[in-house]
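Problem: given the chain below (271 residues), write out its structure.
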Amino acid sequence: MNRNHSLLGLVNKLAQDFDLSQVELDAVLALPFNIREYPANAEILREGDRPSQCCYLVEGFLSRHKYVREGTRQIMSFHFPGDIPDLHSIHLAHADHYLGTLTPTTVAFIGHAAIRDLTVEYPRLAACFWRETLIDAAIFREWIINIGRRQAPGRIAHLFCEQVVRMKQVGLADETGFPSFLTQTQIGDATGLSVVHVNRTLQQMRRDGIIGPGGDRVEILDWGKLVEVGGFDADYLHLRKDIRSPAEAHGNMNSTLRERRGRLGQSPGPG
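Solution.
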């Protein structure tokens, strides 16, 4: 990773919904930061920590999670390149959850003081950062609904839909699939399901021709059906206008998906 390019993803993200000036963009790129690389399954932030810097995700995937007394884990959100998952730590004295890596990950640590100074000098950038924390809160609300009110197929389908739409913004996914960065245990920790239940549900989704057989990419064979099963509506993600809605994407992808299923000849079996 070229150090000079490390914050470009952050600039692109902030500029999606605000018409930022070149001066404002340059000010973000000029933020001081320290790059650090982590292996998979490492904890970047622990509950009770008192951080003095924010973690900007350059490459890889992160999860926000907590542990209950019995030792089990609840994943509360996933984070992709361009995210600052602990932006709220600027205003909170200590961390109330864990932040960990799911894959080998590169992060840029930006000091709280530098971000505070930036937002004081450039109020529109303060609005950009505030908006990011509000979208985080909207995702939390949707996850509560997902775990509390949907059945297992709906929970997993909704989770996959969200990953597609969010990763699509940074060029890592589209309606045909996304990188397979989660284990079945991690899917269970995010959806409140046992590993056995996750496995059975994924097998059924493959038999139904919704997803492919697995591998290093989650292949989506029927995006419209995935959206339907998950009851997915991307409004809560508050995307910029040029990101297509699931319904629009479904319409445009129909012919491609039919052609792919025709080449396969039949729905894939359990993998």
